[in-house]
User: Which sequence fits this backbone?
């Protein structure tokens, strides 16, 4: 049996004109994502690749590699809402430097992002069983859905693991530098 059949990348949309979005549905999705070689799995809600709007749950585990990408050609807006767990959204410059990183957590001030088509981005789940709801302009065509820059390794390549580890180190270094700057600004006083 091929890996695609034993470990799909996405589950087909449930049938019906009204589909209840249940804890059972996402619980099963999260459980299946734990056994996926990719460490993530989509539950599609749109019925066709040709749908004008694509809606889906994305169940992710730490260590999954989402290639840095943008949705420029054709231009597609994307909205990402974190429903459970914790995720770091990373925006890149055109040459691959980290432009911004945003911690997304449900129940906090920042629980999601809306991303313009020209923005290179990725996201890193920080907790097991991170659940995201995504909404993106359709239709879906595999060959043009994502614009992947030359500096980002393709998923499944040996370089991808090294890149992900390096990205985590860069994110940590950036966060530490920002914390040190805040500490210096306060004159070294401990947080109150």
Assistant:
């Amino acid at each position: 049996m091929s890996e695609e059949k034993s470990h799909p990348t996405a589950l087909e949309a449930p049938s019906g004109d009204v589909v209840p979005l249940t804890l059972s549905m996402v619980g099963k999705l999260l459980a299946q994502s734990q056994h996926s070689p990719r460490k993530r799995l989509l539950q599609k809600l749109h019925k066709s690749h040709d749908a004008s709007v694509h809606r889906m749950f994305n169940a992710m585990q730490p260590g999954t590699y989402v290639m840095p990408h943008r949705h420029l050609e054709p231009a597609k807006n994307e909205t990402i809402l974190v429903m459970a767990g914790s995720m770091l959204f990373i925006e890149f410059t055109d040459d691959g430097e980290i432009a911004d990183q945003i911690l997304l957590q449900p129940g906090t001030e920042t629980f999601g992002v809306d991303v313009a088509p020209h923005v290179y981005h990725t996201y890193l789940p920080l907790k097991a069983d991170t659940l995201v709801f995504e909404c993106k302009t359709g239709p879906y065509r595999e060959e043009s859905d994502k614009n992947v820059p030359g500096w980002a390794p393709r998923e499944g390549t040996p370089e991808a693991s090294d890149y992900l580890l390096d990205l985590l180190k860069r994110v940590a270094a950036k966060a530490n530098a920002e914390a040190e700057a805040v500490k210096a600004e306060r004159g070294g006083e401990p947080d109150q």
Remarks:
- Residues 181 and 187 are 10 Å apart (CA to CA).
- The longest helix spans residues 158-185.
- Helices lie at 3-6, 23-33, 158-185.
- The mean pLDDT is 93.
